[in-house]
Amino acid sequence: MIEDVQAHVRDLARRAKASAAKLALASSATKDAALRAMAEGLLKNAARLKEANAEDVAEAEKAGISAAMIDRLRLTDKRIAAMADGLRQVAALPDPVGAIIGGTVRPNGLRITKVRVPLGVIVVIYESRPNVTADAAGLCMKAGNGVVLRGGKEAIRSNTAIWRVLQEGLAAVGLPADAIGLVETTDRAAIDALATAEGLVDVVMPRGGEGLIRHIAEIAKVPVIKHYKGVCHVYVDAAADLAMAQAICFNAKCQRPAVCNAMETMLVHRAIAPRFLPPMCKQFAEAGVELRGCERTREIVPGLKLATEDDWYAEYLDLILAVRVVDTTEAAIEHIERYGSNHSDAIVTTDLREAEKFTQGVNSAAVFVNASTRFTDGYEFGMGAEIGISTDKLHARGPMGLEELTTYKYVVYGNGQVRI
């Protein structure tokens, strides 16, 4: 048991900072070799990872955690393989460090270039899903950053096992293992210590419940990139292909309900609601989804629970769905703007004008036309893994990949110029 949490956290950050200085100078080939070694290590140690995870799952089940949250926690051979594949994809991506974003030559001959550089030390605070340990570490390292990871208490054994494998991958190619740090205590005091570690931490990225993120934003003394809740919507327009709409809505809610890009509210145009809602709600009910509808929805599908005002704001992360009938695309947009979280929203329609109206009117990080919100994901966007999905507007929005883990500096070349 770690007695001095503050000292433990500051030591991790200090070592990550020293390591980040070395990573910033590492070649792309060396960083890519480390990523491949990490991926191979995860596969070779799959049994060890699953053993640690089984202990976490058993304890979570004993504590009465929901089935959806257990699913987020559980490691399988497929998910371990996906972690490894994500690291390999990151290795295959161009290294952003040192890339020239732009440049100009001034009349006095000064050559000004804008160059990508690492952020420094990144703290990632997350819950439940142990795959985030590998995703976040791999991306931060490739972008030349040191990282300190603080996972949820329910995944402490799983995260620790993954972290040790990742450190072995760094050491195998001569990079400092301390570039990836993990907080080895479930004491919540570690979160406050990380968010206030001025001079050691450059940015904090909280992923998890809204309460956690708001707490960090309020107490932080270092910059915070927020990944607020995912109140995601699918709007089924009057001109929708109903078979396509049913497939998209079912996927958006049921494919993996406990993730931030799952649909939480389904909006349906009144013109097609009588035809669309009965078969759609039947499919949801058969899949165990609890439906909460507005009065108009309940007139079409009797017996549904009445949705309250709180339901429109809710991120259920479970097999629960709010359903509302709306009169127009404009009404759908107004609902999303009022109750949404600027994460991911979709329209299903064959009318290009309605699609354009929706994409222009909905101010979310990702807006889809005729596709599931479940695609808001770094892996699906071709970024390899992702460190999270930002709902902020400054620095980064949406899935955060390698470029979003860098900043820039100006490098200016002269030949003796002095300012007059």
Quickly list its features.
alpha/beta; Aldehyde Dehydrogenase, Chain A, domain 1; Aldehyde Dehydrogenase, Chain A, domain 2; 7-stranded parallel sheet; 4-stranded parallel sheet; globular
- Structural shape: globular
Helix content: 40-55%
Q: pLDDT average, as an integer?
A: 94
Structure class: alpha/beta
Number of domains: 2
Which CATH class of the largest domain?
Alpha Beta
Low-pLDDT regions: none
Find the count of extended strands (DSSP E, 2+ residues). Answer: 16
What fold name stands as the CATH topology of the largest domain? Aldehyde Dehydrogenase, Chain A, domain 1
CATH homologous superfamily descriptor of the largest domain: Aldehyde Dehydrogenase, Chain A, domain 1
Distance between the termini: 62 Å
Strand order of the largest sheet: 10-9-11-8-7-12-13
- What is the second-level CATH architecture of the largest domain? 3-Layer(aba) Sandwich
Oligomeric nature of the chains: single chain
Query: Gyration radius, to the nearest Å?
Result: 23 Å
Number of alpha- plus pi-helical segments: 15
Q: DSSP strand (E) fraction?
A: 15-25%
Task: Provide a descriptive summary of the structure in words.
The protein has helices at 5-23, 28-44, 46-62, 67-73, 77-92, 131-142, 156-172, 189-195, 210-219, 242-254, 273-286, 295-300, 309-313, 329-339, 352-361; strands at 100-105, 111-118, 121-125, 146-150, 180-182, 203-206, 232-236, 263-269, 290-293, 305-306, 320-326, 344-348, 366-369, 389-390, 398-399, 406-413. Strand 4 (146-150), helix 7 and strand 5 form a beta-alpha-beta unit. The radius of gyration is 23 Å and the shape is globular. The model has no long low-confidence stretch (mean pLDDT 94). The chain has 420 residues and is an alpha/beta fold. It folds into two domains: 5-225 and 400-413, Aldehyde Dehydrogenase, Chain A, domain 1 (3-Layer(aba) Sandwich); 232-375, Aldehyde Dehydrogenase, Chain A, domain 2, CATH 3.40.309.
